[in-house]
Amino acid sequence: ARVRHHRWEITYQFKSPDCFQKLAVTINGGTPGPTIDAQQGDTVVVEVKNGLLTENVAIHWHGIRQIGTPWSDGTEGVTQCPILPGETFIYKFVVDRPGTYIYHAHYGMQRSAGLHGSIIVSLPGGVKEPFEYDEDRNIILNDWWHRSTYEQAVGLSSIPFVWVGEPQSLLINGRGRFNCSQAGTTAVCNPNSPQCSPYVLTVVPGKTYRLRITSITSLSALNFEIEGHNMTIVETDGHYVEPFVVKNLNIYSGETYSVLVKADRDPSRNYWAALNVVSRRPTTPTGLAVFNYYPNHPSRSPPTAPPTGPLWNDTDYRLDQSLRIRARRGYAVPPPRTADRVITFLNTQNRINNRTRWAVNNVSFTLPHTPYLVTLKQGLLHAFSQEPPPETYDYQNYDIYAVARNPNATSSDGIYRLEFDSTVDLVLQNANTMNPNNSETHPWHLHGHDFWVLGYGKGVFDPEKDPKNYNLMDPIMKNTVPLHPFGWTAIRFRADNPGVWAFHCHIESHFFMGMGVVFEEGVDRVGRLPTSIMGCGHAKVLGRKP
Ligand code: C2O
Ligand code: CU
Fold first, then answer.
1. Which residue ranges form the domains of the chain, and what is each CATH number?
2. Which of 21, 310, 341, 492 is deepest in the core (most CB within 10 A)?
């Protein structure tokens, strides 16, 4: 195994990814940032210098479990103090599983300012994938706003509340296209900027490509389609999928998929790769890339209209694709047959002090100033609420199909403490928002673990009946899973990774508005904490001296 060393400087730069110029947070000047390429078992070392003038930073390695290194998870307020302007922080962790992963900022809403990239972990030499392809390509999907992250965050915390709204553009590998004639007169918008020419994926006729597709959106659920070409889904979140063919792929923020695409169509032309918003009524134009058959010129526009994707509100279509994702035969890891503890999470939109918030079981999460990992390990228990949040909600009396009679909720930074090595079931239950006949899609992401996806269903989860239909045969393992509108999703995991781990909705504004929880397990087994994660809140006295 090798050590892969990276040296990154984080800075703001003027960028025009969709032709409209704004400030973006970059790594060594770029967004998306550099791809981390490694082999299973390698150690990745990333020296992050915060070159932002007035803003903290923290970077999370999404999908990497951080076994033995919980302090490198990069989650501000949970596993570390933020990296201050001018400071350097060293992340060091082992990539123990092959697959497609993501890294991104985990401080406030900073992720949406552009700090993200791919982590590709390849198999050790001599080991083969259970499928064949000629070449590999990374595709990062994102949504993009012209207002700054600060303006968005202030709006969400304001009275009256100002919603971030739908994105202005969809980006494929950091490239999109905004119609500059709609930009205000003070805006800098250049339709001829080379930064906003579409991404070109050049293919050789007859070859098969493995597209490693990642969604890092701040809000949007997406549908990705390559005009006229089928895709075979073979991997998700680092686990092999029993292959199945789709015309288009639904992908939620925080998920990764590998799909195989064969360049087997008329090679005399190019084709559109199209990205469309689903689940929310789209107001954002289709994101486009060019699927370029060699040797056609890459800038030659396809002669056809780009695909518009499935109906945005066809929840059944998306639920159906979720249900088809099973572990590949021969690779399924059987889950424990039963759980030691079941926690049910009712997902609701709420009002607290005239602000709109999100809550689970009527508790809206707030991050403490001292990271939990430090607090728990050093016994500074006064640093957060010692009242454990609720395990369930009153499911016999709550109407998930109606706007709540009482939308009030409480705020808390209390956490769930799990028995080490126990098996835990989490049942996510969706509900109506504060708007009539409306329920949203929430992609939930668990840090520090993969979980088994036991099932999805419509309506109210029945704790007597529904577990009888759990898939214990070939459930896929993932780290991010959608909760569909008015439905439920059940997952199971082993609390066998000593540390403190966030579990939250991967929609940037939803987590910012309280949609998350934190689990602790086996913190007494965590090794000596590096002092570099300290230096804020009650951990200040423990931090390093300047
Ligand atoms: Cu990719 Cu806590 O997030
Ligand atoms: Cu959400």
1. 3-324 (2.60.40.420), 341-542 (2.60.40.420)
2. 492
Distance from residue 79's CA to the centre of ligand 1 (Å)? 12
Is 427:343 a contact under the CB 8 Å cutoff? yes
* CB-ligand 1 contact for 62 (6 Å cutoff): yes
Over residues 507-541, the pLDDT tens digits come to 999 999 999 999 999 999 999 999 999 989 888 77
Which ligand has an atom closest to residue 360 CA? 2
Residue 172, SS3? Answer: strand
Tell me, in angstroms, the distance from the centre of ligand 2 to residue 408's CA: 18
Per the CB < 8 A criterion, the answer to whether 194 and 18 are in contact is no
Ligand nearest to the CA of 511: 2
C-alpha–C-alpha distance, residues 531 and 546, integer Å = 12
Question: Cα separation of 94 and 64, whole Å?
Answer: 8
Residues 83, 74 contacting (CB under 8 angstroms): no
Mean pLDDT of 299-325: 97
Per the listing, tokens 């689970």 go with 360
- What torsion do the CA atoms of 24, 27, 30, 36 make, to the nearest 10 degrees? -130
Contact 106 CB / ligand 1 (< 6 Å): yes
Query: What is the 58 CA–ligand 1 centroid distance (Å)?
Result: 11
Ligand 1 nearest-atom number relative to CA 504 = 2
Cα distance between residue 397 and residue 215, in whole Å: 36
Tokens of 447: 């840090």
Q: DSSP letter at 30?
A: B
With a cut of 0.90, is the ipTM above it? yes
CB-based contact 271:300 (threshold 8 Å): no
Task: Decide whether any atom of ligand 1 lies within 6 Å of the 111 Cβ.
Answer: no
3-class SS letters over 254-276 = CCEEEEEEECCCCCCCCEEEEEE
Task: Give the predicted TM-score (pTM) of the model.
Answer: 0.97
In this structure, what token pair is assigned to residue 78?
């949970």
Half-sphere exposure for 152 (CA within 13 Å, toward CB)? 23
Ligand closest to CA 77: 1
Sequence-distant (6+) residues with CB within 8 A of 127 are none
Q: For residues 22 and 178, give the distance between their C-alpha atoms in angstroms, rounded to a whole number.
A: 13
| Non-local CB neighbours of 108 within 8 Å, separated by 6+ positions | 56, 76, 149, 153, 512
Ligand 1 centroid vs 73 CA: distance in angstroms? 10
Rounded CA separation 217/277 (Å) = 11
